[in-house]
Amino acid sequence: MAARPEITGRAISDVVWLPSGNIEPLAVTFKAAASITGLGQTTLWKYGKEKRIRLIRLASTRRTLIDYPSLKTLFLPEQTKAPERRRRGRPPKASANEERR
User: What residue segments make up the domains of the chain, in order of their start?
Assistant: First the structure.
């Protein structure tokens, strides 16, 4: 029996975008997020538990969605400076002046 999306409310394809290109969805399913980002669903769940992306749990259903703006910020480059490179060798001993403080 063929799926009828007009009755079930489910889309035929994995990702359904609105016809207008400038409107972003509020939330996406894990399957859609996996196809958009190229990450696996397990990795997306891990990022949700680590609070790197925001998960939205609908009240009356068992469905969990991913907040689309938080998914976009996951792929933005970080604005922090690069960590300082670790120097080779043993760290220098503290001088006598620093020990007295």
Answer: 25-76
Residues 71/37, Cβ–Cβ less than 8 Å: yes
* Tokens matching residue 40: 């696996």
Quick check: 63 and 52 in contact, CB under 8 A? no
Q: Tell me how far the alpha carbon of residue 51 is from its chain's centroid.
A: 8
Instruction: For residues 34 and 32, give the distance between their C-alpha atoms in angstroms, rounded to a whole number.
Output: 5
Number of neighbouring beta carbons within 10 Å of residue 4: 10
How would you write the pLDDT of the chain (101 residues) with one tens digit per residue? 555 555 555 554 544 454 556 788 899 999 999 998 999 999 999 999 999 999 999 888 889 999 999 999 998 877 666 777 888 888 778 776 665 55
* 3-class DSSP assignment, residue 85: coil
